[in-house]
Amino acid sequence: MAASPALLSLTPAVSRHPHLLFSPCPPPRHVRLAPPLAAATPSPGGNGPGPGPGVFLSPRALSQLDELAAFRYEHAFPHGLLTVRALTRGPDDDAVAEALVRLLASSFSETVRWAPAQRYAQLLTFVIRRYLHDRRGLAPHAAVLVGFYRPADAGSDDSAASEEGGRDDEGGEGEGGDEGEMACTAEVSFDAVGAPGAPPTPTPPLDFPYICNMTVKTPLRRRGIGKQLLKACEDLVFKMNARRRVYLHCRIIDQVPFNMYRKAGYIIVQTDSILVWLSLQKRKYLMSKELPQASVVSETSTKNFDDNIDKLNVLRD
Q1: pTM for the full model?
Q2: pLDDT tens, position by position, 274-289
Q3: CA distances from 197 to 61, 89, 202 (A)
Q4: Residue 253: in which H helix or E strand, if any?
Q5: Which of 126, 135, 249, 283 is found 20 to 30 A from 268 (Cα to Cα)?
Q6: Cβ neighbours around 28 below 10 Å, total
Q7: Taking the CB of residue 280, how many other CB atoms lie within 10 A of it?
Q8: Residue 46: CB partners within 8 Å, gap ≥ 6?
C-alpha cells in the first residue's frame, strides 16, 4: 500500500506531541482474498469505507484474532474503573473508531499553535480517519487499544439516567456506551507486518513489538490511567505470543512520560542524533523492556493472592 502523502507532510508538525506518532502503513506481506460479504459498502454514517478486503490467515493468526476479540484489561482505581480492549475491524466498532478519531485529533491540535485551529483540526480528522482504517485492517499483526473510564459513582448516575429515559452526554453513544467514557488509546504492533512503514529514529527492530500513539484524554490525565494503559499494552503483547522485548519512543524533553517508562522497567537503548533538529523534530530516546515470562498480573489480583496467603498463615498459627 502506498504511503499517504498527507501522513508524510504532517510528520514534522505532529511529532511535537510527546506520545503520538503517525507514520505510513507498511506494504501488506500476506495474501489478500475477497471477503464472503461485500466490503466496498460505506460504513454507517458515511464516515469512510467499511472493512477492507479479506485477508488469508493462518491457524495461528486466526487464534490471535480470537485473542484480540476477547482481550480485556481492567484496573480499579479509588476514583473509577478503567477497561481497555482492542478496536475491532468490524462495523460494530465504527462509532467507537469515529470517537477515537476525535480524541487523537484533539491531542494533536493542542500541541500546535501556529496553524488555524479549525482548518488544522479538519485536516487531522481526515488523515487520522484514513490511518485508523488502514491499521484496523492489519489485525492480528497490529492492534489499536481503546480505554474506557467509568467514575466510581457512575452506578448511581446510570440508575438515575435509566429512570429518566437515558443519558445524552459525552460518555454515551459513540464513546463506548455502557463501557463508559473514552479515556485513552495506544497502538501496538507485534511483528514486521504490523510495524509502522516509516518508524522514527532511532529506528526500532521492525520484527519486535512496538508501542506508539499513546494518549490520555486531557480531563482524565494525572490519574494513573497512562500507567495502566502501558500495562495493558504489555499484557496484550504477552497474550499474542509475540517476542518479549518491547520498544517505544520518548522525547527527551518529556520528563513525566520518561519517568513513567523508567519506573515501568524501560531502559534507553539509543538516543537521537542532534541532526534531527534539521527536520523540525525533537530528539527522542528509543527505549526497550524485556517482559517477564509470566503475564502481567493486575494489582487487584496480586492483592487478592496476598490476602489468601495471609489467611492461610493465620490458620496455620
Answers
A1: 0.73
A2: 888 887 788 999 999 9
A3: 21, 20, 14
A4: none
A5: 135
A6: 16
A7: 11
A8: none
